[in-house]
Here is the input.
Amino acid sequence: MTPGTYLQVTGPNGSGKTSLLRILCRLLPQEEGRVEWQGAEIHSLGEDFFADVTYLGHRHGVKDELTAEENLQVTAGVNGIKFDKDAIRSALVKVGLSGRESLATRILSEGQRRRVSLARLILSNTKLWLLDEILTSLDASSVLLVRSLIEEHIAGGGMAIVATHQELTLNAGQSDRLELKT
Here is the structure.
């Protein structure tokens, strides 16, 4: 992949979409072959590789006992992202969670929890986004938000690999499609 590109990975349940993304972000070892990033095998890059990648899994990945704001603070801290409260609040406003920043995520809807996860993309400064079923639990306006976030990322020279069952047509960058079979 080159900067400004988007790859949509499709296929039926069980075809390996999630496994592929998990291999690409080193959560799952590949059985054969090499996975390279900028000409080097990803396992040899260590933290340099992780500094370039943001992975959002098919589950929203938020802690129910924490607020939306606290979830983003923890995620940013773990990933070494510099943040301030204003940036976090701005990200939450952008994803439509204004007024819900201080609520425990357990009382938010599934779609709102997904939006907390989406706010991570706004705060990240990585080159490659690996997004697994990112549209799950989202209403039509939130799908448009996801689309615009990916388009902005790609227009800025980023790359995205998105595993999804829904068609996600973008108006930015180069796109390609990989269809996996069972």
Summary: The longest helix spans residues 140-155. The beta strands are 5-10, 36-37, 40-41, 53-56, 128-132, 159-163, 174-179. The helical segments are 17-24, 42-45, 47-50, 68-78, 85-94, 110-123, 140-155. The chain has a mean pLDDT of 87.
